[in-house]
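Entry:
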Amino acid sequence: MIDLLAPLSLIRDPARFGGVTAGDCLHGTPIIRDGRLVGLTSPTGGTPTMILPQLVEAHCHLDKCHSVHRLGPVGGTLSEAIVTQRADKANWTAQDLRTRTARGLTEAHAAGCRLIRSHVDWGDTADPPLAWSVLGELAQNSPGLQRSALLGIAQLADPDFARAIGPLLASDNATLGTFVLGQPEASAGLRAAFDIAMRHGLMLDFHVDEGLGDLNGLEQIADIAIKTGFEGPILCGHAVSLIDRDGDTLRRIIDKLLAARITVCALPTTNLYLQGRRDGTPDRRGLTRLRELHAAGVPISVASDNVADAFCPTGQHDPMAALSLAVLSAHLDPPLGQWLPAITTHAAAALGQDPVHIDGAQLDNLLICDVTHTADLVAGRAALTPARKRLT
């Protein structure tokens, strides 16, 4: 039997799991009962291998992915990317969508993901777009795939639209999402979003403050969540403008995020590519305040976002790669095991799922990686493979 290294941050009860402490991990020989990893005994002295839960891709756009080859020049701001990608929708036939979305989903699975949330651009009416149906087909054979409707905030502020969209999303077991960027309708649209979610038992997922400067949709969302007593999961992606807050203002917003039990999702590839643009090399980081949020106890996640489209010409559907980039761009310091919940347990909870911790997990829900340090794991120095193949 091989020795294992289990990151402490991914163990629910390290004191009862056994093994010996080795940096930010526990080291030992696995104890397996009924197909579950229930503990560690003393290590044998051989070279250990890392074990961790399957990854969670908390935020991506499978409907847009792998379209960059036909877009021409795409380098620009968020608004320019939106215009470019919208023009490409003329190419979104059923076959085109099936080919590209299946490719993205295959990549995420190959990266070790068990749970994936894809946003889907909505249309001008309450009727589902073609991409919604295509991803629904994929989800039939991929139960870990969640769909989140990316709606316009002005649409949600329309009572007729709001009445129609709730039952539709509930019947599809989907998530309600919208884009919040300081629009005049933001306040009414956000109140409607919470009302729809509470009426129909929906999770909420916001693209919020995807820009630097004077944007404060994140605090608006927290205020409404607290006022309404909303109990479902809330995931807020981007929150880039939080980097422009500090001192008492930052503390006030963080306190509200904690009270509202909001998870903030950083999306380094797209935000670094689009934000802070200038004529020359950018001199600002388009990224939320990951270190401050983490230190305060706000759950954070990191995800791949856009892959090979108008919003990010490169990228990959791989949360570990996204976390590696976040380490560099946000100065997430070692021990790097402390950041692994951002692509596993915290991310799963934000998507409304019970987090998989190492202790007591079924082997089918665990991955093995032939590295001996969490820094090597996050750097992607070895492939992630199913644990069952190595432990049985």
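The radius of gyration is 21 Å.
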